Amino acid sequence: MTHRLELRNLCRHFGDHCAVDDVSLTLRPGQVTCLLGPSGCGKSTTLRIVAGVERQDSGTITVDGALVCDGVNTTPPEAREIGLMFQDFALFPHLNVWRNVAFGLKGTKASQRARAEALLERVDLAGYADKMPHQLSGGEQQRVALARAIAPKPKIMLLDEPFSGLDDRLRDDVRDATIAVLREEGTAVLMVTHDPSEAMKMADEIALMRDGRIVQTGTPYTIYNSPVDRDAAAFFSDVNVIPATVDGALAKTPFGAFLVPGYETGAQVDIVIRPQHLKIEFFRHGHGPSESATMGAAAAATVRRARFLGYQSLVDFDVEGGPVLTASVSSVFVPKPGTQFWLLAPRKHCYVFPK
What we know:
By secondary structure, this protein is α+β, with helices and mostly antiparallel strands. Helices cover 24% and strands 35% of the residues. It folds into two domains: 5-234, P-loop containing nucleotide triphosphate hydrolases (Rossmann fold); 238-354, CATH 2.40.50.140. β12 (250-253) and β13 (256-259) form a beta hairpin. The protein starts with a strand and ends with a strand. 35% of the residues are buried.
């Protein structure tokens, strides 16, 4: 099958700094892929290379199997059949809504207006054609920007953190509407974001970037539940880290021993577990945790601090011989400092990484 978009071994240097380092990625028609990573990791530079406003030093880009650029030869941005949505909407303030949407379209004025009004209806802005941009809310301006971006029927849409300027509730509504329209069009979408929750809500596939490289690619479920390293795990949520030393393929911790095949005796490792995967059970002197056999490892723990967050409570625990660990529990449960519990670490949710 021919990929709608294929990036192969893209590299881009700025002086001695390698901003994009051997990036390869494919998108099929209708697929939504998020380039996810911290500021400065190279995701926006990658997007700019695809758009044609930045040139790579090496590597190739193809659209539907046809070469777009290879570092020497390049197709100009306007001929790539690629749309682009920015964070700041970039609407023309002196043009009304329908003229903003129709900007760049060919044909008669009547056909341009008809196309613009049809798209405005699709983004729930019917009747807004003659309004000016300053008369619109931020969410409405974003939907006008979407209508304008899809008006020329691009094969690929590039989104550069276009929802970050909206408040949380409005962001969800506009984001969902945007993706729904793009999926209906069968447009391949490459989106840049630094927000893991946004990537997981929107993407069919996530490409996690760090220091110019893609370190892991997969579905949201896979990339969250099977992180490639400790930093990848920590990027998606807070994590607890339990340092341990390997002794005969076992890493010994306050919770007991964890099997760690592939590590030599004496190796230093980190056992990583997310707060929501730690379980707690009331402590009774003289009695072990009832679920320890099925849940995995267990340790006696004392509450240091509990924080009520509405949708959950975060409880910090002191564990003898180990670091302070945080568990995410039901919001109706806010234990007092000094209370003892059994803290259970299900082995199936624990990751082992080199220290």
